Amino acid sequence: MSIRVESLCYVYHPGTPLETQALSGVDLIVERGTWVAVVGQTGSGKSTLAQHLNALLLPSSGRVEVDEVPTTAGALAAREIRRKVGLVFQYPEHQLFAETVREEMAFGPRNWEFPEEEIKNSTRKAMDLLGLPQELLDRSPFELSGGQKRRLSIASVLVSRPDYLVLDEPTAGLDAQGRKELLYLLKRLVKEGLGVVHVTHDLELALTMADRILVLEKGKTVFCGTPGSLLDELLERPVRGLCLPPILELVSGLRSYGYSIPYTLDSEELADCLEREIRS
């Protein structure tokens, strides 16, 4: 079972002076139990693609299928697709709306007609997963800190137990510890069979965490493959729309001065290699 994107094109405001081609011929496969990163600069089409994956947007041409069901198959199909594919927006303020955290968490499961006792249990588990204290349940979502809002927006999607999770810049607004905890959680959920689509501008993060990476530039695919393949390409020649991560720029500079240091994205490994080189 998978999400399949074939020759996807999308035009904003067609037939008007504001017409904009946002996506052109994009292909992508997201299988359950895999982590796919979508990388590109601002305006590359990342968020537009994300909103196609749960039928929030429908293709101008091409095809998007979720477990073999096209997103264009009608209202009932779109409803089922949105149950299977949870979407977390880039800005929590665009997603949160209820008067209390409890109501925010219950909205999705009630929409899918979960029993009330199941909603309570799922709410507790999802909040625990995201490190949100139960004491927040009767607070307004808008009284929470930026990091808590981010975690709540993710928890309020996970509570409905989707098969796929699409996250638009999920680590924005989190401190270093919160970011580390969230990435660990996502990795764990992938191992348990969740399909994750992670929209990010952070190439180093994508190279470290993802199973596959899609690179977009101006709505077009410039790369789709494994992190290892992308890294090989980056070291051989520039990839449009991407810059070499700072740690790789540093390694490249050190190698140009004669240090025999392997290319790595691990700062501790780099420090160890450099220490050995200096001692030798």
Describe this protein's structure.
With 280 residues, the protein is of the alpha/beta class. The chain folds into two domains: 32-58 and 75-238, Rossmann fold, CATH 3.40.50; 245-280, no CATH class. It has helices spanning 46-52, 75-84, 101-111, 116-129, 146-158, 176-191, 203-209, 227-236, 246-256, 267-279; strands at residues 2-12, 20-31, 35-39, 61-66, 69-70, 85-88, 164-168, 195-200, 212-217, 220-225. The strands form two sheets. It has a six-stranded mixed β-sheet, sandwiched between helices. Strands 2-1-4-5 form a four-stranded antiparallel β-sheet, covered by helices on one side. The chain is globular.
Task: Throw out a few tags for this protein.
280 residues, alpha/beta, Rossmann fold, 2 domains, 6-stranded mixed beta sheet, 4-stranded antiparallel beta sheet, 10 helices, 22% strand, globular
Helix-strand blueprint:
Layout: E1 2-12, E2 20-31, E3 35-39, H1 46-52, E4 61-66, E5 69-70, H2 75-84, E6 85-88, H3 101-111, H4 116-129, H5 146-158, E7 164-168, H6 176-191, E8 195-200, H7 203-209, E9 212-217, E10 220-225, H8 227-236, H9 246-256, H10 267-279
Parallel strand pairs: 3-8, 3-9, 6-7, 7-8
Antiparallel strand pairs: 1-2, 1-4, 4-5, 9-10
Helix pairs in contact: 3-4, 3-5, 4-5
Q: Biggest sheet: strands side by side, in what order? A: 6-7-8-3-9-10
Share of helical residues: 40-55%
Largest sheet: 6 strands, mixed
Judged by helices, strands and strand pairing, the structural class is alpha/beta
Segments where pLDDT lies below 50 for 5+ residues? Answer: none
Q: Determine Rg (CA atoms, Å).
A: 20 Å
Oligomer: single chain
Which geometry do the CA atoms define?
globular
